[in-house]
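Practice record 12: protein with pyridoxal-5'-phosphate.
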Amino acid sequence: MLVGEAKVMHDTLLKRVGNTPLLPLEKIFKDFGKTVYAKAEMLNPGGSVKDRLAKSMIEAAEANGSLPPGGTVVEVTSGNTGIAVAWVCAIKGYRALLVMSDKNSEEKQNMMKLYGAELVLTPHTVMPDDPRSNYKTAERLAETTPDSTYLDQYNNPANIDCHYQTTGPEIWEQTEGNIDCAIIGAGTGGTISGVARFLKERNRDIKIIAVDPEGSIFAPYFKKGELITPEHYEVEGIGGDKLVGAMDFDVVDEFVTIGDREAFLNTRELARVEGLFCGGSSGAAIAACRRVLKSHPEIKCPVTILADSGNRYLSKLYSDKWMIEKGYLNRP
Ligand SMILES: Cc1ncc(COP(=O)(O)O)c(C=O)c1O
């Protein structure tokens, strides 16, 4: 009896991933006389777009036999994937061993731990091929931990595929095929690549615009084919410091680069004006939408993605003290 009840709970929670609402943002774009439609991914049960990915990568590992019952899941994360992996592992009874750069918020660290995950922090100052980097640390842990599987979201085909299978079709259906532009942040690149592949198959005229932070290597690579040395930026979850398999540049039409200050001020405005409590990458996406609406007045049905909830950034972009110290807000 108890087992039956527990199973019902378990299935229900994981089945709640995806099918997020598409919210019309009217007030924040009123100067443009346009509505931007925002996919509210923070309403996934684990609080971010990464629930889709964690569920899909872990189920793929179960299906191909690389994750035995009670085994260990190793993953490298900028926070949201780690939280989502820790959450799925808590439900399914796996050990989660997560590696994250120390640049990411303490709230994210605590959220992973509250689901029972073990967390290794790596210095954000080192390059990706340094043995101390998050990528190399995760590889080492996976090699030395018995019964473990390394999900490797940056190169796992399930990353693009889960958005091709779910997020893309949901957006297409929710806009009744009217979408003409998608403006989406790129971190691993999985969301934008999967959504774009699906949408372009339906209508190849749909414009796909990637949002990238200042300091990331993606936009300069896309625009000039050059690999720059990455620079530090504060916005979490988007931008890259190396090229990865989940970022398909071929399905992207344009890149828009957004600075930290602009991203954070737009995130706060989103909460104040629309009542949407999101992370900094959502503010970067809103800032990018403003630029795109200005440069492409022909766009009628733009869609963006609000990747995660603001509760992961209370000590950062939602703290006046932190914002003033960083120079993003003027002292009152
Ligand atoms: C807050 C946030 N926004 C956007 C993204 C980008 O998603 P993707 O990795 O699919 O490019 C991420 C990914 O970690 C994220 O954490």
